[in-house]
Write a structure and sequence with these properties.
Two copies of one chain form a homodimer.
Chain A lengths: L7 E5 L4 H13 L4 E4 L7 H6 L8 E4 L2 E4 L1 H11 L10 H27 L3 H22 L12 H5 L1 H14 L10 H11 L2 H4 L5 H17 L2
Parallel strand pairs in A: 1-2
Antiparallel strand pairs in A: 1-3, 3-4
């Protein structure tokens, strides 16, 4: 648990999968923090001051020290509060956790977001194919483990909250099949197990307003088609 | 030093800045390894087996355990061989090192490579501007330190070998100004200090064949303009 001397703030936005990663990590560690919702259409002075490089959420400020980039923050949380480890202790297993969480950001997030948001049909087909390929690697990697981290939620699970919560919402809004139980049975089972984990569950955003937000966003994108 | 029981192989390619990062990290630790030059136009069975996800170099194989992604490899090396630390021991400083090395991959490598390789003039202007903005952040971050890591070469320095060695070569071939001592005096001084560090120096590729390779590559790209 964070001692009373610690001052921890999270600048976030309700619909962001990257902010959700940080919330889950804090909760796994039992760290209390002050949450500040940012209006990304009108960014605060605080956000611009603490993340002048990317001007994005999440940002944490721990005893006046700011830090950005969700996976960097999750590792920082793991190294600062030692209880309930998020990364394995073995250097090779740690490296694999970093490899696969980076893989999710590099190969799943971009391709799946483009698949649901591009107005170009050929581009969409290409991105759907790339999403399938990337998810297949994760399906294979999961093997018969409960979580990517084994018996406990770890770095790759936290990174993959985007796959468990956001992709199903996007595909429902857009009427596309990206991540289904038929195509990725192990990954689908993992997603159900993960979303029902008590700490994950209480740190997911409320589905309805986030769904409505993205529905509106996609409608505005496709209205211009 | 690696013990004689350790079996370490690096699959690389002579002109790759990402492979060069791993070579520097191994040398800083005094790890002996077997180097295998890959022909990227005709990838080996070994490369496809050990890095089925990205099919790229560098890949290391340590006692039969394969690992890809240069920054993940460098952290693995740092955690496996504890002498001559590459990352700081303080969690916040470690996080900043990860933040800035990721920044180099996300904001410098892509923009500067596009700046020298795109045939579209508007695209080039945009990428030159983005490269300038990214390098300015690093210029500011360097402050009056000898290396990004302080008195010793660290993770960010190793990541930035691309800036010290590759960008000057690219801009000379293409006749563009991307990274000059006038515009980025601190970063330029850093690059000279870094390139002359004995361990860095002996692990850079020979400039002439790499220069010739990229000159030929750019000529083939621009011949089609």
């Amino acid at each position: 648990m964070a001692s009373s001397q610690e001052d921890v703030t999270l600048l976030g936005a309700i619909g962001s999968p990257f902010v959700c990663r940080v919330k889950i990590a804090f909760k796994l560690k039992g760290v209390e923090y002050k949450y500040v919702e940012e209006n990304l259409a009108n960014k605060s002075e605080q956000l611009l001051k603490y993340n002048p490089v990317h001007k994005k959420v999440p940002v944490i400020v721990h005893n006046d020290k700011p830090l950005a980039e969700s996976l960097v923050i999750v590792e920082y949380i793991d190294e600062t509060w030692k209880n309930n480890p998020i990364l394995p202790s073995d250097p090779y297993q740690r490296a694999l956790a970093r490899f696969w969480s980076k893989f999710i950001d590099d190969k799943v997030v971009g391709a799946s977001w483009s698949a649901v948001s591009t107005i170009d049909e050929k581009e969409r087909e290409k991105n759907v194919k790339e999403t399938f390929e990337a998810l297949q690697f994760l399906e294979n990697e999961l093997k018969d483990k409960k979580f990517f981290g084994g018996e406990e939620v770890g770095l790759v699970d936290i990174a993959a909250v985007y796959i468990a919560f956001w992709i199903p919402m996007f595909q429902e809004i857009r009427g596309l099949d990206l991540f289904t139980s038929e195509k990725f049975p192990k990954l689908y089972n993992w997603s159900q197990e993960f979303l029902n984990h008590p700490i994950v569950k209480e740190n997911l955003p409320p589905r309805e307003p986030v769904f409505a937000f993205f529905k509106g966003l996609f409608e505005s994108i496709f209205a211009s088609k």
